[in-house]
Amino acid sequence: LLGLRAETSQAIPLAELFADDAESVKEYLRDCSRSAEMLPRTLRVRQEEGGELLLHSEGAAVAPRTGLEPALVLLRFRVGEGPEATAQRFQMFMENLPGLAWMKDLGGRYVYANTAAAEAFRTPRAELYGKTDGEIFPPETARQFRENDRRALEGGCCVQTLETLEQEDGVHYSIVSKFPVVGEGGGAELVGGVAV
After folding, report:
1. In this predicted model, what pLDDT tens digit does every residue of 31-60 receive, in sequence order?
2. Quick check: pTM over 0.70?
3. Which residues of 34-71 are buried (b: 16+ CB within 10 A; e: fewer)?
4. How far is residue 105's CA from residue 180's CA, in Å, rounded to a whole number?
5. Per-residue CA distances from 34 to 22, 38, 59, 67, 78 (Å)
6. Alpha carbons 73 and 30: distance in angstroms, whole number
7. How far apart are CA 100 and CA 196, in angstroms?
8. Which of 30, 85, 115, 192 gives 20 to 30 Å between its CA and that of 121?
9. Which residues contact 92 (CB under 8 A, 6 or more apart)?
């Protein structure tokens, strides 16, 4: 789980194992040793190959301290990651898709495009974001894109269609999937698209 070899995981000082302040980790473990209830905490653990891993932990005493005997503490861990890691993973995934991928807000303005989409649209991302199809493409191309976005949003499900786009080497025909991207409230917040 931690990426440590068995022979190195026996007696590692807290300061070397945890990226968090060693004193705060010790305090957490002391609190767990005194608690009958599971106490939650997210800990940052150093990995042997470099980097950090977020562990969501819960700990409690299963046998209290008696005399000179230390308390027996149960610690449960589950691996998690912060928003930065999630965003990096999303970016890496989107950039390695074998096709174009993009998202627009409900007003039809681009909020995301992978490199392949920006290149096919012949518009750098810095210029693409915040613009609508009508501001980027010829009228007929913009019309077909908007119509398929509308169908996906109104239908509340994925729409697959054939779209055309004039690129530097001529007209390209792509199988396009467009779909609503649902937000926390349960309604569509964005419309996504993937073209191959």
Report:
1. 888 888 888 888 887 777 677 777 778 888
2. no
3. eeeeebebebebbeeeeebbbbebebbbeeeeeeeeeb
4. 10
5. 19, 10, 10, 14, 22
6. 9
7. 7
8. 85
9. none
